[in-house]
Write a structure and sequence with these properties.
Four copies of one chain form a homotetramer. By secondary structure, chain A is an all-alpha fold. Chain A folds into two domains: 126 residues, Voltage-gated potassium channels. Chain C (Four Helix Bundle (Hemerythrin (Met), subunit A), Up-down Bundle), CATH 1.20.120; 111 residues, Orthogonal Bundle (Helix Hairpins). Chain A is 65% helix and 0% strand. Chain A contains eleven helices and no strands. The first copy, chain A, is flat, with a radius of gyration of 26 Å. Chain A starts with 8 loop residues before the first helix and ends in a 32-residue tail after the last helix. In chain A, 39% of the residues are buried. Chains in contact: A-B, A-C, A-D, B-C, B-D, C-D. Chains B and D meet through loops of B and loops of D.
Chain lengths: 283, 283, 283, 283
């Protein structure tokens, strides 16, 4: 027989905090995440406005206050996150943990290094949390599909990218030798930069061939780029098509219960405890 | 037993007008829509020509007369549309109703605000009516397919766009910090603008990196952009492929009768009245 | 019983010529087409070289002689084509007939209009004949597949292009109103030109937005363009996938006999006469 | 009964060397390839750095020494490769053999032709060997899939590219005639260059139309390019989708044993000797 250990009061507070801060399945947890997202958006906006000289000249003190307000808020949130979880180190070194730290650090660093506060716009990465909030809507299935389709096609895409880089190196060298510094191809790395710009069909036009032979090679590169754009698209399309049929089979057997503590889904319909973290599923 | 209410003469005129103006299944209705489209095209052409300085200098009065002619015509049509329908408010606040109003308003506003008449080229949106006229041909099925394929892939595309925007914010900030104002990255919003221009492989070339590290980051962004262009394509491709097979099953059971009043299709083969608006299907 | 009509000598010559000039299944016919293609390529090359000022200055007389040589050759071929076919008017007004005429006309016109001889490079279109020669290889199946896949997706693509054009008109007007002549948006047609350049992700950079609001709208247009690039790709992909499975079923029942006179394929295995032109299949 | 021929000592050394240099299935062979790749990368890096003027001015002698070091190393490797294989001519004229020679030749040529040593960056092509090393991971299946998908769609893509080139020739001529030298269209080849730049949606912006009619034609070209980008993508997507289902059937019957001498896979589960080169499979 399984006997639940008696919990101290601090443990209960900790778990309540955990469910609000990390969870998205209770009403309080949802509200917390929504307000967090709004604050992140506002703080990113403040940093952006500060970078525009005309606006910063007029409203510098307001923007700076706003930035400090959000930084202190996010610092409190960061401490609470460490306090409430059972495995603080796991959080600190997780993807989100590092981003959360990076989002507050530049502001404190600005005491020592001028201008570093602009780095706070790394906070935009915190908006990725949105996907956690969307977990409740049918968006989460889509995000998972996207992620697993990209994961499945990863080896193909790595082979592809590697081929692209080798092409870029060879063509970049040839263009450097053919065109020379007058046309802007001042070094092989710049030649490679031009090749990537061209192969990806971006085509800034800051560097372009001027000799007939260089233009001929450029045409060859462009048509190649045009042709190979088909490869990643084909890979991902085939992956999506495969997933689609796989999804159909899955749908019926999936349970929709989600653990309020660790957000794990896929529990058996009659499960009482989360198979991942051991907490009770229904509170 | 269902007894049709006796109709007054004005009711009959109203319904006849409705069938001609809104419907596309009678000969008169078709003719009305075709003439309307020609008039819209001509009026858009007049506005365009007026915006070209050399042409406007020579033919200003002719173009202005033409614009007023079309505006008055469209105003009469707008009033008739409100008069003939049973639910005028539904029309006024519908997508097409608002466009129809926007198409005539700027001309009248030009009495108060100079230059506002050029906004009449919003009339181009009225050309979307073309899709209603094409309903008769096999184009409509295609338009519906396109629409429902896009609708089905909407959540995936929103997740995708959101990811793109977060990437743009982070990369835009980094480029602003790396390149600085000399290279044109005068603020974070401009950095974001550059990132979107690059990620979408448009590459105007109005702003471009000049430092080696900036160019390295740019290469990374471009290859990423090249890779993720595959994602929406893959999504929509898979959706189309799915629809194709679904269509095969549907085709046999669909009835091709279309209500002359509300353009609703999908009636049962033996239906006498439109299931949507209650009007008789065969007049 | 079918009795073949006795043929006069000129009729026999005519038919022999027809098989050589129009057909690609006899050895002579194949050789004729290959030489024709080489001559077309050389003549196109001559016109191109003539357009390069540095080359034309030095070799004008040689290039001009070459052009006249090819023009007279193609004129003779044109007359023989008309002479040898049974339905000369059908040829004259066919796609290839018009191109063949356009390929020789500009040269004769150059007596009256200077410079019109450069139009002879329209001859490049004659290279499309290559597909007829390739009929013998397995290329023809692919060309047919490409053509029928594009044909099947035509209505969808028309709906798509039409939507793109309406977007271009509306956005072009807005950009003209927002940016004005200082940024290069001197008229609505130029605004439309810019929108198409941006929406198709070409991005020349000859015109680009400079106001913050214009850049914001531009970002919106670019992401839209990025998204809708998926639509035609998805359409064509689905079409190809469909064809692929259809092909599998077809392959076994197709006969590979090709009529030497009219190039029609798909005859019954035991057919004696071409079902299309009535000529004997095996000579 | 099969009797293995007695081998001389030099034959044994040769075979051991062969397995280390050409093979990737023994530990020594794997290590050899990994070090080779690192050396190739370093040597390519040295050439790149040499091409950057600022770096070359300061570290010329170091970079030159590094280049000579790698060149002598690769020369020794080249000789050992010829020595260890049984069919030296087959290696010398193989794809990798030619690249290996090209990777050392320019350095020796630099005694006679100044600057030719920069051509050594062709060494980047040697990095393609990476795919052989990756053979052990599941990358190789992907690389094979990519290759066979591209091979299968080759005829379709050739037909497609050919059509693109004919379009480029005709449009290039028209643009040259419409725009003329003022807009940068100084010759027909430059017009063709512009058309390819535009059709592939690269859009450098070094040449662009300035007349209204030229811009109209440009819009047409861009939308066409946008449309036909779908064709190669569709082809490759369909090919990948086909392969995916074919793969499923294959997987179960494939044996994973790889010959240590010739890297051939696909042996029967109970095979003792490689069916390709006759060497013992298990050493």
């Amino acid at each position: 027989m399984l006997i639940e250990e008696p919990k101290t009061k601090i443990d209960r507070i900790r778990q309540q905090l955990y469910i609000v801060i990390y969870g998205t399945n209770t009403k309080a947890g949802k509200l917390f995440d929504i307000f967090l997202l709004i604050f992140i958006l506002l703080s990113v906006l403040a940093v952006m406005l500060e970078s525009v000289k005309e606006i910063d000249d007029n409203y510098h003190s307001i923007l700076l206050s706003a930035e400090w307000f959000f930084t202190i808020l996010f610092s409190i949130e960061y401490i609470l996150r460490i306090f409430s979880t059972k495995k603080p180190w796991k959080y600190i070194f997780s993807f989100y943990g590092i981003i959360d730290l990076l989002a507050i650090l530049p502001m404190y660093l600005s005491f020592f290094i001028t201008g570093s506060n602009l780095l706070t716009s790394v906070r935009a990465l915190r908006l990725l949390r949105l996907f956690r909030v969307l977990k409740l809507a049918n968006f989460v299935g889509e995000a998972t599909n996207l992620k697993s389709a990209l994961k499945a096609s990863r080896p193909k895409i790595i082979v592809f990218l590697f081929t692209v880089l080798i092409i870029a190196m060879v063509v970049g060298t040839l263009m450097f030798l053919i065109e020379g510094p007058e046309a802007g191809f001042t070094s092989i790395p710049r030649g490679i930069y031009w090749t990537v710009v061209t192969l990806t069909t971006v085509g800034f036009g800051d560097i372009y061939p001027i000799t007939p032979f260089g233009q001929f090679l450029a045409m060859f590169v462009m048509i190649t780029g045009y042709g190979i754009i088909a490869v990643p698209t084909g890979i991902v399309s085939a992956e999506f098509a495969k997933q689609k049929s796989a999804n159909k089979e899955d749908k019926s057997t999936k349970s929709k219960t989600v653990c309020p503590v660790c957000d794990e889904s896929g529990h058996k319909p009659d499960a009482q405890f989360c198979f991942n973290c051991g907490e009770k599923i229904k509170i």
